[in-house]
Sequence to fold (233 residues):
Amino acid sequence: MCEDRDNCCREDSPRIPLIGEPAPAFTAMTTQGMISFPDDYKGKWVILFSHPADFTPVCTTEFMTFARMQDEFRALNCELVGLSIDSHYSHIAWLRTIKEKIAWNGMKNMEVKFPVIADLTMEVAHRYGMVQPGASNTQAVRAVFFIDPEAKVRAIIYYPLSNGRNFDELKRLLLAMQTSDKYKVATPADWRPGDRVIIPPPGSCGQAAERVSKAGTDYECLDWFLCLKKLPE
Fold:
């Protein structure tokens, strides 16, 4: 807890945007030209992620995986936007090296086509709480922000500098949120597409009793508050 309350609560202190809040807006130079975020991505999901630095080993494996999966995310109406506290020219040189020299885990000649933000001033990184002094004052941690088509922050995941992200989980979480939005349901632990989903809990004792009594082929109730059903194929 901060003892210097006045200093901790300054308006210019970095603050991580919270789930459900509008995504902080910015304009930035990227490897694909200027972007105005989130205006340029209206109607789309976005995974905005940071990495500690160019020409680093863990980040290289992550960028190769993001590049391999870009079409998979795009098929789910989701775009990728990367960021690090490096220059535009450093980004270009690193991405060329990845394409021309690096082969890893069955991947080679991987071309990174999604935009990577050059954030030397740390302006964007600070707006999203990507610079965390306990980890480093000069590098962004491995942050992942899921921004929905309404430009709202929907999920946030942070990884330490030393450990790469789980890309299967990134895609699984995106699918889970899209499923919840479309069908107005929740998803249980370890949910995968095709698994049963959770029906929202009833709002009264009468509704609870009625739901349990009608449970059958359409849905199953483990108890009045936990009922599951299959979704259409």
The helical segments are 5-8, 57-75, 88-101, 123-127, 167-183, 205-214. Residues 8 and 75 are 42 Å apart (CA to CA).
